[in-house]
Amino acid sequence: MREPSSPPPPGSPPEAIAPPARLVESRPVEAGPLPAPELWAGVLRAASDNRRLISIIEDFRIERLEGDAAVIVGRGPLVAMARASTEAITELFARAGGRPIRVEIRADESPEEPGPDAAAAPSVNLAEHPLVKQAMELFGVRTPIRVLPRKKEET
Predict the structure, then answer these.
(1) Buried b (16+ CB within 10 A) or exposed e, 45-60
(2) How far apart are CA 73 and CA 106, in angstroms?
(3) Is 83 exposed, middle or buried (CB count within 10 Å of its CB: 0-12, 13-18, 19+)?
(4) What is the pLDDT along the chain (155 residues), one digit of tens a residue?
(5) Strands (E), 3-107
(6) Which of 65, 114, 128, 144 sits between 20 and 30 A of 27, alpha carbons compared?
(7) Domains delineated in the chain
(8) Distance CA 2, CA 87 (A)
């Protein structure tokens, strides 16, 4: 094989030449609207640099997304705080969705599902536990022990 920069020797057969590449007309791809989960993830990413907004909307969810309108729902006093920040939240939606989106903020009226902290009281009598018995004897406790459910910690 010859060097690419040197000419072919006289009388040698011509090298095979690849056919020219076919040009394909390219058109810009129009992205459709984002599905609600991707849009909401984008909104949370857009809010990540604003601690106040992220603390307000992180427990909200998109209830409905139709065209250029979104309904988000949340619980408790955060709903009032979100309503007071509607303009900023609307800007987050526009940044995440790439287009203006009207945002309606509603209180979630559905019954709250019990979480893992809402477990029933233990079925075992803790006063019968060997370590509890030992502690009761050590400290001279004679009154029955009553177990109260844990209070849910605020994070």
Answers:
(1) ebbeeeeebbebbeeb
(2) 5
(3) middle
(4) 555 556 666 666 666 565 555 555 544 434 456 688 899 999 999 999 999 999 999 999 999 999 899 999 999 899 999 999 999 999 999 999 999 999 999 998 877 665 555 555 555 566 677 777 788 888 887 766 666 666 766 65
(5) 61-66, 69-74, 102-107
(6) 65
(7) 36-107 (3.30.300.180)
(8) 70
